[in-house]
Amino acid sequence: MVRSECGRLVGGVEVDEAFIGGVKEGGKRGRGSSKSIVVIAVEVKEPKGFGRVRIRHIPDASSENLQPFICDVIDMSATVMTDGWKGYDGLSKKKYRHERKVLSSSDDPAHVVMPGVHRIASLLKRWILGTHQGSFVPAYLQSYLEEYTFRFNRRTSSSRGLVFRRLIEQAMVTGAVTENDVKFAPLIQFNRS
Q1: 47: cis peptide before it, omega within 30°?
Q2: Ramachandran angles phi, psi of 17, nearest 5°
Q3: Does 93 fall in a domain?
Q4: Domain, as residue range, for 129
Q5: 6 lies in a domain?
Q6: What DSSP element (H or E) covers 17?
Q7: Contact present, 18 and 108 (Cβ < 8 Å)
Q8: Count of Cβ atoms closer than 10 Å to residue 44 Cβ
């Protein structure tokens, strides 16, 4: 489902992490939880709406994982909008226009300050609950994310037949895929979606 030559995100791009996994009673919330972490980037259209999305499963929310993702999927001309998390420090040194929206200093909830990534995270979690009945294997999460990205980025297509054709074309030009290709490996940098 992945075209290796797909373009990078442009314009205003919101980036944030989300935690995917079941409800665990008494467990930690946020970055200290044992859930799977994904980083989401979404183009924000003016005056409203969202463009394309990119999502990657990462081992942790450190700058070593967040910044390579941004460099892989976001064009240098874009304005990268993030929360105040330290993992995004240093984007200006990489020549990105970086806007921080520190949520703790805002009276607005996170989904109001950064609506794009929170909407995508919500839709992704709902898709996993509906399509996969809330069950997934974390080792294969990146493959699920790529399917979701493919579907989301083609949500406005007026020709379902053309979407199917593009999928078949991609299958014809893609080499054999092994189990190791679809398993999550923290040391592998995914340049997909």
Answers
A1: yes
A2: -100, 155
A3: yes
A4: 12-176
A5: no
A6: strand 12-20
A7: no
A8: 19
Look up residue 175 and give its DSSP letter. -
Q: Worst-scoring range by mean pLDDT, 34-38, 131-135, 146-150, 186-190?
A: 186-190
* Domain count for the chain: 1
How many whole angstroms separate alpha carbon 32 and alpha carbon 85? 14
Alpha carbons 44 and 10: distance in angstroms, whole number: 9
At CB < 8 A and 24+ separation, what contacts does 150-157 make? Answer: 150/1, 150/2, 150/193, 152/53, 152/120, 152/123, 153/52, 153/53
pLDDT band (50, 70, 90) for residue 96: very high
Angstrom distance (rounded) from CA 96 to CA 75: 9
Range among 65-74, 99-108, 126-135 rated most confident: 65-74
pTM of the shown model: 0.80
Confidence tier at 23 by pLDDT (50, 70, 90): low
Q: Does some domain include residue 127?
A: yes
